[in-house]
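A.,

Following up on our hallway conversation. Structure tokens first:
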């Protein structure tokens, strides 16, 4: 089943008020004596993402209709854009509870919601080594060089 796509006409969440909180992927058991034990409970870590948008009347109407019809009043999963250490990524998300609408001035509304995502993007093992050893500049430089090699330096159609 394909995910419902976020409407192109609706903006990404605002930076102001944006936050996310991964759930602990482990369970902790207290012992009668000694240190507590911890063990991993799951690999796909659910993350709660707090988001806000500012909409005019038309975009608010579009958002409300999108949630009502496409997301079945917020219960269905959809493709959402989130921001984290890997910058902007598309993830599978759904709403936790109802969204909230505040009128901030005539004709302008702030909408806030909490989304639940599964598998928030994390650096690959190779990216982690590059970040740990060399920093973000080298990571972006190498990915930029690879992009340039594939899309600029190797021009022409593929022929087998």
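Then the amino acids I'd put at each of the 160 positions:
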């Amino acid at each position: 089943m394909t995910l419902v796509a976020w409407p192109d006409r609706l903006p990404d969440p605002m930076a102001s008020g944006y936050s996310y909180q991964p759930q602990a992927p482990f369970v902790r058991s207290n012992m009668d004596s000694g240190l507590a034990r911890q063990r991993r409970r799951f690999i796909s870590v659910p993350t709660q993402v707090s988001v806000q948008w500012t909409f005019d009347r038309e975009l608010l109407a579009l958002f409300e209709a999108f949630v009502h019809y496409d997301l079945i009043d917020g219960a269905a999963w959809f493709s959402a854009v989130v921001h984290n250490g890997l910058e902007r990524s598309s993830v599978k998300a759904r709403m936790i509870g109802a969204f909230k609408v505040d009128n901030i001035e005539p004709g302008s509304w702030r909408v806030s919601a909490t989304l639940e995502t599964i598998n928030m993007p994390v650096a690959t093992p190779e990216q982690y080594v590059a970040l740990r050893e060399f920093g973000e500049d080298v990571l972006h430089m190498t990915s930029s060089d690879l992009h340039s090699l594939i899309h600029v330096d190797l021009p022409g159609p593929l022929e087998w």
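Strands lie at 4-5, 19-22, 26-29, 37-40, 46-56, 78-84, 87-95, 100-105, 108-118. Curious whether your intuition agrees with the design.

B.
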